[in-house]
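Sample log: Chromosome 8 open reading frame 74.
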Amino acid sequence: MALLTPQEVKEVFQFQRPQGREHLRRLLNWEEFDEQRDSRRSILLDTLYQSIIFAVGKGFPWLEVAQVVKFTEELLRETKGCSITEAVTILGEQAQRLPGYVLGRDQQVDLTVAHLEVCMPPQPLPLAEGMDRDLWTHEQQVAMLTESEAQKRADVLLLKEALRLEQESSLQKAFAAAVPAQPGQVLERQELESLVCEAVHTQMEILQQLLQRQIQNTFTILDLKLQKKTLNLNAPTPIPPPITSHTGQEEALKPQRASKGKKAKARK
């Protein structure tokens, strides 16, 4: 029997059982036969088909599934006409030669090489510099609120500068448009009043924008201050360091001794 290709055994597996058996028969170049009259050939076809189903179910690659079919066909041919005892003996001999059968053939190797960079963790700080997790979280939240407040104050300064530049540009354009084209020409009263009105209008618009933004930023800053105040009121209590020396123990016992002394005086 010619060795089936991985694609051919895959096609057999993808069909339902009747279509899969028929497709396998055609791949084996067998002539059509009567399933009822030629039961031996029918059983042989069933065995080869079941070997495909078994190998795929065990997770064999398609190339190895084709090898399983060939091994099954060779085993059935060698045990043809043998008794059960002789067939088991032949099966045992074939099983002992399986390592050589596998290793003696070209193997399809799928090798993936990946170059991974291992980053060493940073050197931890000394335990004496450690901080309680809740206290560290609290300080991080306060720092974020302080940074946001500083950013809002900086935004106000940037806004003032931007509006000042915009005001200067608007006034320069208005003045350039009102200046007489010929030297020595005097502005009319109406033109001068229009120039002054436009300058005042520009100034009022700039001040209105600045006032609105300042009010918004002021409320935002007040809200940030309130959040910081709330966090500070609910700040976790730092864990006191352990008393490790005799002097520390003496300091801790002083309030208790003083209390005992006062009680003794009161009794007298």
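Observation: Residues 6-103 form one domain.
Observation: The longest helix spans residues 133-178.
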